[in-house]
Predict the 3D structure of the following.
Amino acid sequence: MDPLLLGVLFILFLCLLGLSWFAGTDAPYVATKMQLIKNVLKLAGVKKGSTFYELGSGDGRVVIAGALLGAKSYGIEQSWLRVWYSRFKAKKLKLKNAHFYHGDIFQRQYFPADIIYIYLLPGGIEKLEKKLKKELKKGAVVITQTYHFKFWKPYKSLGNFNLYKKV
């Protein structure tokens, strides 16, 4: 095969990988500092015996932080590349309680969750606010970062994080 054609195909492949990493309409990939994540997860009550979800799990750092605190942790992500990367990181850390799934966060149900973490743009937050109000069990905690629910009153705040409790 022609080396030029192979080079062009390789560059196209790399472009597709890059697009997959940044795939998403409800949130761009923006990493959050680990110390902030640990602090807010502890404040929300993420611990052994709890069930924790991150909706739009990116590179998996929040889900892994929840798993390291002992929670059964689940990440839902629409980029296959980020799902594979997150699974790799969890496997490398030998975390059996960190799980990553590819899919649409608006098409799943979250009634088993004790705590949910969301860092999305306002449109995604608005859709999830209604959905979670219907689905979550009483006492479940939702953490939002930067963009927040309009109709729930936060019971705690930490920097740009709000914590809400389903009543």
Q: What stands out?
A: Strands lie at 51-55, 72-77, 98-102, 115-118, 141-145, 156-158, 161-165. The mean pLDDT is 89. Residues 71 and 82 are 21 Å apart (CA to CA). The chain has one domain: 3-165.
